[in-house]
Amino acid sequence: MGGAWPAPRSTPYPSPTGRGQALRRSSARRGRGRRPAPPRRGRSQAPGAGSARSGAVSACLARWGLRACAQARGVRPAPSVGGMAVCARLCGVGPSRGCRRRQQRRGPAETAAADSEPDTDPEEERIEACAAPLAGVGGGPCAGPSPPPPARCSLLELPPELLVEIFASLPGTDLPSLAQVCTKFRRILHTDTIWRRRCREEYGVCENLRKLEITGVSCRDVYAKRINPRVKSGRFMKLLPDYEHMEYRDVYTCLLHRYRHILGLWQPDIGPYGGLLNVVVDGLFIIGWMYLPPHDPHVDDPMRFKPLFRIHLMERKAATVECMYGHRGPHNGHIQIVKKDEFSTKCNQTDHHRMPGGRQEEFRTWLREEWGRTLEDIFHEHMQELILMKFIYTSQYDNCLTYRRIYLPPSRPDDLIQPGLFKGTYGSHGLEVVMLSFHGRVARGTKITGDPNIPAGQQTVEVDLRHRIQLPDVENLRNFNELSRLVLEAREQVRQEQQEGRHEAEGPEHGPDPVPAEDGGKPGDAAATAAEQPGQSGQGQPFVLPVGVSSRSEDYPRTCRMCFYGTGLIAGHGFTSPERTPGAFILFDEDRFGFVWLELKSFSLYSRVQATFRNADAPSPQAFDEMLENIQSLAS
Asked: What value does the CA radius of gyration of the chain take, rounded to a whole number of Å?
């Protein structure tokens, strides 16, 4: 026999008393010489843990006793406390020691009354019904042993590699709270794979800390070019942080998560000139790229950009802010988040912005970078004054700048073209950046970069999409008076509608109305008439600027799709006496449009900015409208 369990018998025990005696003898043999297991080390015992542990031990012993009885009968019952009590009653030993003691204290009458009560416990009936066919006593509802219940599994029992996959799919902001659950979770959260995935999915980090591979334009290249283009790679590598001993956990917590609020598109507060700044995660750096229009008058050229500041980890857990302005390389800087959607930068070493040749050398260098030419190449005296004024004004902001968040305009299916940022020509002021957005039946062009006449933030162009102008043929279009007549007729129609109260500034949000039929047909025929026009069918109609209208670029498109009535904002120096004058909005294609200023007899050509800006989408149309109102109020 030894300590092994007896084989299941083919016949049931002769009596409940015999079953109870067999169970007690077997339990005594198994429990002889055993000691309780010592508690686990390395875990702190919380208040109330002793009672909880004793309860758990009691439950385990109860389940063990139930299992022993079931094996003796050839049945596998469910591990429950209720089942333990039933099995104990079936074996004749009572559910517990207290139960047997109470039975001993009972009188003969009480014992007889208790024995006469019917036992209707459902768990007992289930066990007896399942045990009957095993004992050879007829058939029952159970033809065999019942399936084992599903085992309860805790997160602590999962393998570490599975926990790594689970934790890596959680947001990075939840991981610090998860590390406070237990020591095992805290140890697993030190795995670099988890934080590397969070950096890649939440911030688009493509840098490999072990291989130093940066995709695209990185500040490593900018650093080398601005310090010394002929610097050797070995010497350059010594200037970089020690990436071999850096972890993605430190990159996430100390760099990306800490400065996440400054990522996106911003407009610097440089008086009337404004600007366009895009703060992005570039490799293991956070870099603020200042986007500049191409040199005048090449409106179709790509945008230029230069770094203003960068943030990275020089040590294991310390982020360093460096100013990239000037000509002596990166130097110490500071970033302060003023409030929501606004932050400021400060340079702590402005001497790095100065050049050995003094202000004259700084001006010539700035002119070559800003305009792509020298002062001798600019023969227009008024243009020279504007350039010199801009240099003096912007050089005052080289040590401290404030930025306000801007969003890209949201798009709708019924928009005339895709909204976004465009580069436009503005006479002697050069090229400026304009944001085109659609608001129902009105299109607006808001300046992102400005000039002393119309500062950044003002609406430079407003287009009425309900009043389309049918351009004449090329021969008649060369006559400025003909184009002026068409525009003034459209303005008079707008005024009449405003007086009658039928024209609203922002009506229902849908595209431009079709051109009315000239033969006085039904309103439903207007859409078919507009579809048959060359501009609507996508073929385009010939276009040429009228004689006497000046343009900075003669390389404008010679075909257009459609033309609408619009107004342009003009003002004197210092934004004095602003007024809106009539004009014509010319749509060439999806990426280019123009505007004819009748009063100025000038033409502005706009080309779409093809750069991709990250973290620049508006969370909602309401947030975009609030942003426009904010920058317009500051410009006013």
From this structure: 41
The number of CA neighbours under 13 Å toward the Cβ of 547 is 6
Q: Is 339 helix (H, G, I), strand (E, B) or coil?
A: strand
- Displacement of CA 260 from its chain's centroid (Å): 10
Residues in the chain: 636
Q: Which residue from 535, 269, 208, 595 is spatially nearest to 401, judged by alpha carbons?
A: 269
CA-closest candidate to residue 439, choices 622, 567, 580: 622
* CA–CA gap between residue 556 and residue 38 (Å, rounded): 87
CA nearest neighbour of 611 among 242, 289, 272: 289
- Asked whether the bond before 118 is cis by omega within 30 degrees of 0, the reply is no
Q: Residue type at 191?
A: T
Output the CA–CA distances (angstroms, integers) from residue 34 to 27, 28, 65, 160, 422, in the order listed.
12, 11, 16, 33, 84
Alpha-carbon span 91 to 80, nearest angstrom:
17
In angstroms, the CA 2 to CA 62 distance is 24
Q: Supply angle C-alpha 313, 316, 317, rounded to 5.
A: 80
- Tell me, letter by letter, the H, E, C secondary structure of 169-182: CCCHHHHHHHHCCC
d(CA 155, CA 175): 15
Distance CA 445, CA 580 (A): 13
- DSSP letter (8 states) at residue 551: E
Per residue in 48-90, pLDDT (tens digit) is: 444 443 343 334 334 434 343 344 444 444 444 444 444 444 3
Identity at 481, one-letter amino acid code: N
CA-based nearest residue to 384, from 403, 401, 371, 402: 371
Helix (H) / strand (E) containing 201: helix 192-203
Contact 27, 48 (CB under 8 A): no
Count of CA atoms in the C-beta half-sphere (13 A) of 192: 10
Buried b (16+ CB within 10 A) or exposed e, 346-361: bbeeeebbebeeeeee
What whole-number distance in Å separates Cα of residue 582 and Cα of residue 487? 7
Q: Residue 132's closest CA among 286, 287, 12? A: 12
The type of residue at 417 is I
Region class of 369: left (phi > 0), else alpha (psi between -120 and 50), else beta: alpha
Q: How far apart are CA 138 and CA 152, in angstroms?
A: 35
pTM over 0.70: no
Express each pLDDT in 504-544 by its tens digit.
Answer: 555 554 444 444 433 333 333 333 334 344 444 446 889 99
What confidence tens digit (pLDDT) does each residue in 25-59 have? 544 454 444 444 454 444 444 444 444 433 433 34
The three-point CA angle 494-500-505 to 5° equals: 55
Which range has the worst mean pLDDT, 203-212, 337-346, 491-500, 613-622?
Answer: 203-212
Q: Which of 198, 188, 328 is nearest to 251 (CA)?
A: 198
pLDDT greater than 70 at residue 97: no
Distance of CA 246 to the CA centre of its chain: 25
